[in-house]
Amino acid sequence: MTDNLYMPYLMKIEKVTYEAPGVKTFMLKFVNEEDQHNFTFKAGQFGEYSVYGVGESTFCIASSPTREGYIECTFRQTGKVTNALSGCEEGSIIGFRGPYGNTFPIDEWKGKNLLFIAGGIALPPMRCVIWNALDLRDNFKDVTIIYGARSVKDLVYKHELQDWQGRKDVKLITTVDPGGESPDWKGEIGFVPTIVEKIAPSSVNTIAIVCGPPVMIKYTFPVLAKLGFTDENIFTTLENRMKCGFGKCGRCNIGKYYVCKDGPVFTAAQLNELPDEY
Amino acid sequence: MSIDKHLIRKDSLEKLFDILKQNSKKIYAPVPKNGKLSFKEAESYSEIPTGYIQTTQSSKEVAFPRTEKLLDYSKSNEGITVKGIKIDDFPEIILWGVRPCDAMGIDQISAIFNWDYKDEIYNSRLSRVTILGFSCSKADEYCFCTSVGGNPGNTEGSDILFTRLGDDGDYLAEVLTGKGSAITSMLPGLFEKAGEIKKEKFLADIPIKFKNEEIRKKLENFFESDQWIEHSLKCLGCGACAYVCPTCACFDIQDESHGKSGSRVRCWDSCGFSLFTLHTSGHNPREVQSQRWRQRIMHKFSYMPDRLSVYGCTGCGRCSRACPADMNILEQLISIQEAAV
Question: Which CATH number fits the domain B1-62+88-207, given the four candidates 3.40.640, 3.90.79, 1.20.1440, 1.10.10?
Fold first, then answer.
């Protein structure tokens, strides 16, 4: 790489997967083999993905660092850049800068139960940690995943949900918002915080990883507190608007903390110390 | 290095300008245009006015241009070629006539571009700039450098600081850095060794109105104060304050395309704009102007000192001069200092 922090790696879109209406996953490979060789990242980090001529957009790396040779990102088509990305086909070249930000301290979670709680398009940042943990399955005790979306069709990673559903070493609970169920829906119906309360997972020796829209996070934390989770054992990842990704452009801060540098991973204990600006 | 004091005759400044110019240096100096005074490339010494209090824009643009290329790309049937800008190609620039508050501001912006990741584009531009500061013999009611750790004869940030010794006097030249002594040693005929000269009596009188440290301390428990609403009621969210500020460094990154080729550029941005923090989902962590105004003040007087050990304000007063709604940062800071928490 050069001294120019803003120079992206060139990435080839190897595979495009349709996940849900407006949601796609790209499998990306480095065009330059040396870049591939030198690239490392950890669960929880993010990057800037770009379509040349349109601009950059920020998302997490959705694949696990245990799966080498490629990275994946999952995005919803909403703005200028994500619309342009969505128009890219397999074989197209896009830009990627990263990895940026801190990581989930997964090495410190050995011997613990893991409880993943995700809502909507927030499963991608968590998928990275889920696969990271499942690829090192022996390091952890029970793995529980509670995942909710607005409707059945909005659930992402449908094949992987089936995979997790079929595994004996994973407990998966899926839910959709009331009214979002299909006639053959066999999962739960209800908002994520309600379902967490109903399932009432044990907080003993358990780390909770929560990711979702701000409103979901705000209603899920009190439920976890009621279940006996301490704020130090609740992790989340935040997504404020960013441009640079490394603490210069000045917009992702919450109080004096930069989501891009001090986050995106925070514990509930850390969030309690921050102003409500996310 | 210790301060090396010289005298330069008032008539010799023009010679200094001409010789530097002949040495094919680009000289950026305050040049009047359309009623504004801005740092532009000056062709002759006569273009530069004397007696100005402050330029309309700060001098930060020489190291942090309002729009600058980060990379060029071009697409063809064979694929895409991307080239980062060459960071060694920036011009050597003499920045002439910088007020001490702007020179101090350059250090503050440098702190932003160099904590953690080092922004070598910025650093490379700045490394090619020689800053010739000029002390202030006059100030106006908007100036408050003395309240934020500066003063009208502050040497911080300048390579040479010139102080006029009286209305029609010669200039004291304080040579502060290697870049500064490169100029004086190149032109020994223009600079005489100066004896003990007290420059203070020739400087503008700018009374201290508040203390940085007290504002910072007050802000620790001020996030929820109603004053933010009161102070920002007039704010139009136009961002003029950020554009004229010598320390505001927030930027946007955008692509500019022309057919199959184009550039990625970064351009000045402002925390006063509602779009600044708007998520694609429509959620905005700072949805009203009072939250955005709070961010501006907190960033400069609380977050920057906490994280970077520098304040983000030099007391130049430009934001108050530029504000179309007559918001006055000095009055607001005094009111924060005096507020009962």
Answer: 3.40.640
